[in-house]
Specification:
Layout: E1 6-10, E2 13-19, E3 22-26, E4 31-37, E5 40-44, E6 49-53, H1 55-62, H2 66-75, H3 77-96, H4 104-115, E7 132-136, E8 141-145, E9 148-154, E10 159-163, E11 166-173, E12 176-180
Antiparallel strand pairs: 1-12, 2-11, 3-10, 4-9, 5-8, 6-7
């Protein structure tokens, strides 16, 4: 039999252990201070003026103020005077007309008695619209003073801490070659 050499090899093994680096970040929140001044609005318009004119109502109820009553009463006399002159002329023409049979004076007297005195308008005209109402609003005085906002922001820088990681490299198993020679039997 032939002797053989036995060769065994073992691979080398490198071991690596690592710890990752680590960041620690801390930061305070920003401080915000806001100061506001609201707008100021002032509105001044005062009370309005309500005007109620009832003079035409009082004219219709009791003749109104003496000046208005006298004006209305005496202003009609001119027209009544013209009408009376016209009536006198007409009556004179009737009395002077010889063609009329009968007594015209008696007929005229009867007509005057039935007719009565002249129609004078002593009171004003009655109407539901005799009261005049008007409202005079005051002018609105509006003043606006604008407000303001003041914002103050104070930021804080972040605090960043870094802890290094580590890498450990080592030989977990060294390479080796084992050569085993054949056994030689010297005795033979």
């Amino acid at each position: 039999m032939i002797s053989q050499i036995s060769i065994h090899s073992q691979r080398g093994m490198i071991g690596i252990e690592s710890q990752p680096g680590r960041y620690e970040i801390t930061s305070k929140p920003a401080e915000i201070r806001a100061e506001t001044h609201p707008p100021v609005m002032t509105a001044d318009n005062g009370p309005g003026e309500l005007v109620i004119d009832q003079s035409r109502t009082w004219d219709a109820l009791n003749g109104g103020k003496p000046e208005a009553f006298n004006q209305r009463y005496y202003s009609q006399f001119k027209n009544i005077g013209y009408q009376n002159i016209e009536n006198i002329v007409e009556k004179g023409n009737r009395m002077g007309d010889l063609r009329v049979k009968g007594n015209p004076i008696a007929q005229i007297a009867l007509e005057e008695y039935v007719k009565g005195p002249p129609a004078l308008q002593i009171f004003g005209f009655a109407s539901p619209d005799n009261v005049d109402i008007s409202f005079i609003p005051r002018k609105l005085n509006l003043q606006v003073e604008p407000g303001s906002i003041r914002v103050d922001i104070q930021t804080h820088s972040p605090d960043i801490q870094f802890q290094r990681g580590a890498v450990k490299v080592y030989m977990a198993q060294y390479p080796s070659v084992t050569i085993t020679p054949p056994t030689i039997d010297i005795m033979t």
